[in-house]
Amino acid sequence: MCRPAHFEVVYAINPWMDPEKPVDTALAVLQWERLHDLYLSLGHTVDLIDPVPGLPDMVYAANGATVVDGRVLGASFRNAQRRPEGPAYLAWFEQHGYTERHEARHVNEGEGDFLVTDSFVLAGHGFRSDVRSHQEAQSFFGRPVIGLELVDPRYYHLDTALAVLAGDEIMYNPDAFAPSSLKVLRSLFPDALPVSAADAAVFGLNAVSDGLNVVLPEAAGELCALLRARGFHPIGMDLSELLKGGGSVKCCTLEIRH
Questions:
Q1: Half-sphere exposure of 232 (CA within 13 A, CB side)
Q2: Which residues pair with 193 in a beta bridge?
Q3: Does pTM surpass 0.85?
Q4: How far apart (Å, rounded) are the C-alpha atoms in residues 97 and 85?
Q5: How many CA atoms lie within 13 A of 209 on its CB side?
Q6: How many CB atoms lie within 10 A of CB 41?
Q7: How far is CA 109 from the centre of its chain?
Q8: Is residue 176 helix, strand or coil?
Q9: Which of the residues 2, 157, 224, 252 is marked catalytic?
């Protein structure tokens, strides 16, 4: 995770960002700290990367890399404003002893567009990540990568349209995907939880699950009820200030899979 000490919205690279809308950085830090402390209370280890002045979106740690089996695939950002984040995150992994690192050749925005189930790496494209990054990830991780085309600009990253709950159990917003990708999802994940447009619109799918506890935006009320019915323990969080930059729970969380 990365403390949003320098968080602000001074440019617009997704439909959620409006530089004319006031941002309360102190409130963003407070909301982030509550998420950080929640992870600790649930028994998780949280590593921190130092925020870099001039990189206001660095708080969205999920975009910084993808880590599978201790192997680190670095991120390469499409937008110039975020490009320095990739080397900063890769340097953190080098400093912390991760020897298997790969500097991306093609644009990929980390776990924004790479989500890992037991059987697959699900890979989004259409707005940010280059489809060529899918083969690059497959070669590096040695796992099958399933490409999924996103079609709604509000859900510009895969982690705003789909979340992994446990194993090969997922939830997703059907409206966010091209018909061909929706067909793939229905074939591979017939028991997936479909999420309503209303819950998707409050970033309900930008969630983090440890297999039991599902941390998600508290505004996704209907989704919380559906998760309880499936045996999960949903925990709602208010990250409304960070949503002004186009991110929520998952965006703030990079999972390190050893």
A1: 26
A2: 171
A3: yes
A4: 19
A5: 27
A6: 9
A7: 9
A8: helix
A9: 157
**Amino acid, res. 35:** L
Give 135-143's long-range contacts (Cβ < 8 A, gap of 24+). Answer: 136/73, 136/102, 136/104, 136/105, 136/106, 136/108, 137/66, 137/73, 137/108, 140/71, 140/73, 140/102, 141/68, 141/69, 141/71, 141/73, 143/68, 143/116
The 10s digit of each residue's pLDDT in 193-242 is 999 999 999 999 999 999 999 999 999 999 999 999 999 999 999 999 99
- Could you give phi then psi for residue 209, rounded to 5 degrees? -120, 140
Q: Is 96 a catalytic residue?
A: no
Residues 159-176: tens digit of each pLDDT:
999 999 999 999 999 999
In the 8-state DSSP scheme, what is residue 97? T
- The arrangement of secondary structure in 25-164+239-252, i.e. its CATH architecture, is 5-stranded Propeller (3.75)
Query: CA torsion sign, 190 to 194 to 200 to 203?
Result: negative
Is 157 an active-site residue?
Answer: yes
pLDDT tens column, 98-141: 999 999 999 999 999 999 999 999 999 999 999 999 999 999 99
Exactly one of 2, 224, 251, 252 is catalytic; name it: 251
Q: Give 193's contacts (C-beta < 8 A, 6+ positions apart).
A: 165, 169, 170, 171, 172, 226, 227, 230
